[in-house]
UniProtKB/TrEMBL annotation:
PANTHER family: IRON-SULFUR FLAVOPROTEIN, NAD(P)H-DEPENDENT FMN-CONTAINING OXIDOREDUCTASE YWQN-RELATED
Protein name (Swiss-Prot/TrEMBL): Multimeric flavodoxin WrbA
InterPro entries xrefs: Flavoprotein-like_sf, FMN_Rdtase-like_dom, ISF_SsuE-like
GO molecular function: oxidoreductase activity
Secreted listed as a keyword: no
Organism, as annotated: Sporobacter termitidis DSM 10068
Gene3D superfamilies: 3.40.50.360
Residue ranges of domain NADPH-dependent FMN reductase-like in the record: 1-107
Keywords noted in UniProt: Flavoprotein, FMN
Amino acid sequence: MKAIAVNGSPRRKWNTAQMLESALSGCRDAGAETELVHLIDLKFKGCTSCFGCKRLGGPSYAKCAMRDDLTRVLDDVWDADVLIVGSPVYFGDVTADVRAFLERLWFSILMYNKEHTVRAPKSMPVKIILTTNAPEFGFHKSLNEGLIGTMSRFIGPAELIEANATLQFDDYGKYDAGMFDVDDRIKRHNEVFPQDCRRAYEMGKRAVAEAKELK
Ligand SMILES: Cc1cc2nc3c(=O)[nH]c(=O)nc-3n(C[C@H](O)[C@H](O)[C@H](O)COP(=O)(O)O)c2cc1C
């Protein structure tokens, strides 16, 4: 049993990464091996419309034909039993790196036949973690619905949690950040963020249990 987590934040140790680490810790406690990929460490592009994944009889039919650092990650995703994707929300969407990852992951298995068949090599639970400046869950409602809808249809039952009003800087005094109530951010970071991480941990445990049921 293996769980892979993909971190779409350019920051390897901040909010999204910590939520993902918590989720993976839950996966490990439920008996899974884990892998954490930081997309920022990889050299890769989004889909380049080569259509190798649609080429009838071709060597990459229903697989991403591009060859770069993401190739191994896509292979690892399909080897795994649980997929966890984490992203900060940037301008109401996932980060550019996550978008590029999802283009490659999704487009390669979506067939252009009349039925729009999805040829995923397997079904697995998908857990999505978003972290936001926005104060509450569901502020970016259509983003959440789009991610859950596509992941569920393409890969497997999907669930999404968020950490909201996250801490963005070590020291707010050093930045032009007058829009924030700094005391409230710090209080929230100390009191609510640990609970968010706990929810991520529980979600990781749940994901492994669900993956066992799917087997
Ligand atoms: C370029 C950029 C755009 C952002 N856009 C949004 C946004 O549209 N909505 C939001 O709630 N937060 C937005 N944020 C805040 C981040 O989503 C939030 O601070 C997140 O927790 C950062 O994750 P990290 O600590 O893992 O890097 C933005 C931050 C950056 C740097």
